[in-house]
Design brief:
- The complex is a heterotrimer.
- By secondary structure, chain A is mainly alpha-helical.
- Chain A is globular, with a radius of gyration of 22 Å.
- Chain B is α/β, with parallel strands linked by helices.
- In chain B, the strands form 5 sheets. A 6-stranded mixed β-sheet of chain B has the order 6-7-8-3-9-10, with helices on both faces. A 6-stranded mixed β-sheet of chain B has the order 16-19-20-13-21-22, with helices on both faces. In chain B, strands 2-1-4-5 form a 4-stranded antiparallel β-sheet, covered by helices on one side.
- By secondary structure, chain C is an all-alpha fold.
- Chain C has a single domain, classed as ABC transporter involved in vitamin B12 uptake, BtuC (Orthogonal Bundle).
- The longest helix of chain C has 28 residues.
- Classes of the chains: A mainly alpha, B alpha/beta, C mainly alpha.
- At the A-C interface, α6, α11 and α13 of A face α4, α10, α12 and α13 of C.
């Protein structure tokens, strides 16, 4: 009985403090608007109304959320094993590269659906292998994965930029970008009048699968044990080193999926400098959702909404696009503060229970 | 002389889970040795940490020489001449002895040579053999304790608080420590030492404060009391010590289950951690390893369970050579391991009891249902164990971190007893547990022996070794000093062996 | 060639400032993940201060202030509220980007032509700078680089030969020992983070007012992270950090030289990636590390 009530109190705390954090974060951004002599209430009014104003804009929230779900899952997955994958951005680039290159090669030679499936498989394999290298050097050489993964992004960026300027360059040879993808290898949209493609559905399905993997399978169990206590894991016969490689493979594959959905679902080509913040935003979303795959879906949608709304705010009232980063940054900081608040509340609650018990 | 040196009056302290101290009052005179006696969890460490400024009391006063003082930090305590040496030393292992002693006591530029000289002389004055230039991590535990004491002496401490100081010493080293205490107090200084060992208390204390459940239950002069009364005050009732259950058949006649054949663990040019260790454990036998911590016990456990590879020698289980098997493979062979450091090696604190029960079985099919984890089966299994071992927990989904130490240990014991179908290693199984839990663990060990399992028991508590073991081996610097039947050993003899002194008589040679 | 070496030393200056402050912070147990954001705030503060006042000195002071404010927030959340350093640092870095872009717009609107200031000039030291080769390379630098020459030995001395250095190092190895000795661990760690704010701010300012003479939001481009990596590769020692900073400064100088001279000796993009590949290789091959035992672990005690 008491346990049921306890569970509710904690969950209640979680919802309330997260909601407050989002409100405070947006509020802080609103205050910043005053510096630009903009009316924050008006601006945010536009934000909220624009987000639901028409089908296209509303659907765009989910379009923006799709790659964020993948990159957040990528970071969260290794985070569960107490590993830091800071190379999500680079793994995304590799995924995008493979998706673009293989689409261009396969298009027209086979039915689009088959091509898409093959492209997908190649993408996750490539991203997985690229990511697993990090896990490998950690397992074999005890290298610090934080640094290695961070550096790997710059390397991936270099590779991508180089290939875009040479081998993969468009036939016009005017800009460092690929040719446009044939429509047969575009991810189909499933709501008329929007650009919401099935990549979003894929993202949700993958998020649920990751949740099942983490909490319902022995592999996920072992990953979580290693993340919480690598000593106990070792004493229980769990092979941490192999797990590092597996975790980074899955993480890299997840990040690469974002590349696939962006290239085949949105851009329909590959160019330099696109989605440069997917990695960092994914990290932020993973934090917001406390690395829970289901929570990530919602947090990514939130960030997607901030993105779309921020862009509209920019179009309508001349507010700079940096308002998006401002909102995301403030919300993240307040969510971190909410972690602290929640743990304090829990400690006070426990002390109060103790006083009561002593008095009896 | 009538005004006490230090006095604690009505100190009360709450933590988030327990009332650690309730209206605790007592005092200490100059030149007096005060023993703070009680079983684990009685509140002894807490009250001393309050005196030393590490914790803040919720109510009560501290009075020095008749004047009330506020002690809000170790700085305040040190200014009054109070020094505390904790159970887990506060030393920086990567730094030298000198660097550790001068930490916080020096300003500006450090004249290393000058300080090293000064500390070398201080050590000589007290007869301590400590090299000021040595790195702490290279020192034995006994010497590390001396470094801690030197630190207090360097600060000109007048009241020295020591928390379970003899837990890490051989009987001879304990004697040296007691000698130091006598000399120190002869100069008008005072010592409070926290302990749960009755024998020590009777040997060196002038007065004894007995604590139980956070309250003072006895304040007696040593000369006015004796062990039985102290024991009763500590426990709250007369305790009947669990007696050894003598088997009708002697253990020798059973088959050999675990065998160590000249196992050595040597790293590069360092001192061997285990050297030519050979012994056998029969089925249905409890084999105890006695010795001061750090003499190879950890390595012995790890070689048995597979966490450490021996450099030479073999390990055999039921005649099969398992030297090359991984931890995982050995778990499958039926070796259970209750580790000494339960928070680090035994449990995942942030996970539920049920998930912890599964810790050793994640690779098998035991908990799978259509490829996914079968939560219901796991929960009901956990519930069964909770009832059987009387684990005080709300249910299988309770988080391990929320349980008391004793109950956490019960979880580990329950799991390992189930996993260890052939051999169970118990490493310091009752450290930090209250008497009820200790009793339960001992009963479990006897019960498993009755089932025919082999038990490898490592403990620094000699009374526990004697109570439980069929045969006892003494480990000193990685070498077995001898293997004996319990009845052949006296405390004095085992103490000598633990310190490495050779004894010709009464050794059973292991074949 | 002399130009190249001169530029190399120049480009290592901000990396050295950043990495040495990271060494001190990490020795006390704190990873300053917000370093990229601190660099950015420093670059922006320096630019704004210089542009609005016309004085480089005021610019540097503004950079320091901006860096310290950022570090103060990061430090408060990680040292006192005990939150995860990677998570908090990332949040601060994202927020920093937003704040800097936004405030830049607030102050300057959307300028038609990019705003510029006169960057730090080189101050040749009389006589010594005439010595062949090493003269112009080492002694014809700007004031920040001259400060770098002093900071390395001073840092080494403080960290290993003074009591405060001992305390800092102990706080990262075993904070309990420091606590028991009566020293406030949180205060030590927070101070180190603030110092990272000061030096990181100066480092960031180097890019805007010390070298380029302008400001863009991409100006730091990951160099804060390089400083972070250098602390690691330099084995948490100011001497090692100096060498690391020199290596990366040289790599950057070569990259600039290649780009400006138009020479395509090597695929440009891959060449730019070389320092990062080098970091990966070094991270893998390093055998022994002086990692402070409690790096990244918040110090929590029951009281």
């Amino acid at each position: 009985m008491t346990r049921g009530v306890l569970m509710n109190a904690k969950f209640r705390d979680l919802l309330v403090t997260n909601f407050l954090a989002i409100v405070l974060g947006l509020g802080a951004s609103a205050l910043m608007l005053l510096l630009l002599d903009k009316n924050p209430i008006e601006a945010f009014g536009i934000l909220f109304s624009s987000v639901i104003r028409d089908k296209y804009t509303f659907a765009d929230i989910f379009v923006k959320a799709t790659p964020l779900i993948f990159s957040a899952l990528a970071f969260a997955f290794t985070f569960k094993a107490n590993l830091y994958n800071i190379g999500v951005q680079g793994q995304f680039y590799i995924g995008a590269l493979i998706a673009a290159a293989s689409s261009l090669i396969l298009q027209g030679r086979m039915p689009g659906v088959l091509a898409l499936v093959i492209v997908f498989v190649l993408t996750i394999l490539g991203g997985g292998i690229w990511g697993s290298l990090i896990g490998f050097v950690k397992a074999k050489y005890k290298a610090n994965e934080f640094l290695v993964s961070m550096m790997s992004t710059f390397v991936a960026l270099g590779i991508m930029n180089y290939l875009l300027r040479t081998v993969l360059m468009e036939t016009k040879h005017e800009y460092p970008q690929t040719n446009a993808l044939d429509t047969t290898v575009w991810l189909p949209t499933f709501i008329q009048g929007t650009r919401l493609h099935i990549g979003f559905i894929l993202a949700v399905v993958v998020a649920i699968s990751v949740w099942i993997l983490l909490y319902k399978t022995p592999l996920g169990y072992r990953i979580r044990v290693v993340g919480y206590n690598s000593d106990a894991a070792r004493m229980s016969g769990i092979n941490s080193k192999r797990l590092y490689v597996v975790a980074f493979f899955i993480s890299g594959a997840l990040a690469a999926m974002a590349g696939f959905t962006e290239v085949n679902g949105v851009q329909h080509m590959l160019l330099q400098g696109f989605n440069p913040d997917i990695g960092a935003a994914g990290l932020g979303i993973a934090i917001l959702a406390n690395a829970n795959p289901i929570g990530i879906i919602f947090a990514a949608i939130l960030f997607g909404a901030l993105n779309v709304g921020g862009t509209i705010m920019g179009q309508m009232s001349g507010i700079p696009s940096s308002i998006i980063e401002l909102m995301q940054g403030f919300v993240m900081v307040f969510v971190i503060l909410s972690y602290f608040v929640r743990s304090e509340l829990e400690t006070r609650r426990a002390k109060r229970r103790l006083f009561k018990a002593v008095e009896e | 002389m009538d005004t006490p040196f230090f006095e604690l009056r009505n100190i009360t302290k709450y933590f988030s889970k327990v009332v650690a101290n309730k209206e605790v009052s007592f005092s200490i005179q100059k030149g007096e040795v005060l023993a703070l006696l009680g079983e684990n969890g009685a509140g002894k460490s807490t009250i001393m940490k309050i005196l030393y400024g590490l914790y803040k009391a919720d109510s009560g006063e501290i009075i020095m020489e008749g004047v009330e003082r506020k002690i809000n930090s170790p700085n305040d305590a040190m200014a009054l001449g109070i020094s505390m040496i904790q159970q887990h030393f506060s030393l920086v292992s990567a730094h030298t002895v000198t660097e550790n002693i001068i930490l916080g006591n020096v300003h500006g530029r450090i004249d290393s040579k000058g300080f090293e000289r000064e500390i070398g002389e201080l050590a000589k004055t007290y007869g301590f053999e400590v090299d000021p230039h040595a790195l702490v991590k290279d020192l034995s535990v006994g010497v590390q304790q001396k470094v801690e004491i030197l630190k207090a002496l360097y600060l000109k401490a007048r009241l020295l608080i020591m928390d379970e100081p003899t837990a890490v010493l051989t009987p001879q080293e304990s004697e040296n420590l007691m000698q130091f205490v006598r000399e120190f107090t002869a100069n008008g200084n005072s010592v409070i030492f926290i302990t749960h060992k009755l024998r020590e208390v009777m040997k060196v204390a002038d007065r004894i404060i007995v604590m139980r459940n956070g309250e003072v239950h006895g304040d007696l002069k040593c000369s006015d009391t004796e062990e039985k009364e102290l024991s009763r005050l500590m426990m709250g009732k007369d305790l009947i010590h669990p007696n050894r259950v003598e088997d009708e058949m002697s253990a020798d006649s059973h088959e050999i289950r675990l065998q160590f054949d000249r196992v050595s663990v040597v790293e590069h040019d360092q001192v061997p951690r285990l050297k030519d260790v050979s012994f056998s454990i029969h089925r249905g036998e409890i084999f105890g390893i006695a010795g001061v911590s750090g003499n190879g016990q950890q390595e012995l456990c790890e070689v048995t369970c597979g966490a450490l590879r021996s450099t030479s020698g073999r390990v055999l289980l039921d005649g099969e050579d398992i030297t090359g098997l991984t931890i995982h493979e050995r778990i499958d062979k039926g070796i259970g391991y209750v580790p000494a450091d339960r928070h680090k090696d035994g449990l995942v604190m942030e996970m539920s009891l049920a998930e912890n029960m599964m810790l050793k079985a994640s690779y098998g099919k035991k908990w799978l249902h259509h490829g996914l984890l079968d939560k219901d089966a796991l929960n009901s299994y956990t519930n069964t164990l909770i009832k059987e071992y009387q684990i005080k927990a709300p249910g299988p989904e309770a988080i391990a971190k929320g349980l008391s130490g004793g109950n956490q240990q019960k979880v580990i014991v329950a799991r390992e007893v189930d996993n260890g179908s052939k051999l169970i290693i118990f490493d310091q199984p009752t450290r930090g547990l209250d008497l009820g839990a200790i009793d339960h663990v001992h009963k479990t060990i006897f019960a498993e022996r009755a089932k025919g399992k082999s038990i490898l028991l490592i403990s620094t508590e000699l009374s526990e070794i004697f109570t439980l073991s069929d045969r006892i081996a003494v480990l000193y610097k990685g070498v077995i000093q001898g293997i004996f039947k319990g009845s052949e050993l006296t405390t004095e003899k085992i103490g000598l062996l633990m310190a490495g002194y050779d004894d010709d008589k009464g050794c059973i040679d292991e074949r | 060639m002399i130009d190249l070496l001169t530029r190399a030393l120049m480009m290592s200056t901000p990396l050295l400032f950043g990495s040495i402050s990271e060494v001190f912070a990490e020795r006390s147990g704190m990873m300053v993940i917000a370093i990229e954001g601190i660099f950015l705030l420093g670059a922006w503060g320096g630019f704004v201060g210089t542009y609005l006042s016309g004085s480089l000195l005021i610019g540097v002071l503004a950079a320091i202030m901006a860096g310290v404010v950022t570090a103060a927030i990061y430090g408060w959340i990680t040292v006192y509220l005990k939150q995860n350093q990677v998570v908090t640092g990332t949040a601060i870095n994202i927020l920093a980007m937003g704040v800097v872009s936004f405030l830049h717009r607030v102050i300057f609107g959307v300028p038609i032509t990019p705003l510029t200031v006169q960057p730090l000039q080189a101050l040749p030291i009389p006589i010594i700078s005439k010595i062949p080769i090493i003269g112009p390379v080492i002694f014809n630098q700007n004031i920040l680089t001259y400060m770098m020459y002093l900071i390395v030995p001073i840092s080494y001395f403080i960290l290993f030969k003074t009591s405060i250095g001992l305390t800092i190092r102990s706080a990262g190895e075993n904070p309990e020992a420091v606590d028991v000795a009566g020293i406030n661990v949180n205060r030590i760690r927070y101070s180190m983070v603030l110092i990272a704010g000061v030096m990181g701010g100066i480092a960031g300012a180097f890019y805007s007012i010390g070298y380029l003479g302008m400001f863009t939001t991409n100006i730091i481009g990951g160099r804060g992270w390089i400083a972070f990596a250098i602390c690691f590769l330099g084995n948490w020692n100011p001497k090692g950090a100096f060498i690391g900073a020199l290596v990366f400064g040289l790599a950057e100088a070569i990259a600039i030289y290649m780009q400006s001279s138009g020479g395509v000796l090597f695929p440009n993009e891959l060449f730019i990636a070389l320092p990062y590949i080098l970091t990966i290789v070094l991270t893998i091959t390093r055998k022994s590390f002086n990692v402070p035992a409690k790096l990244g672990v918040p110090y929590i005690k029951e009281s």
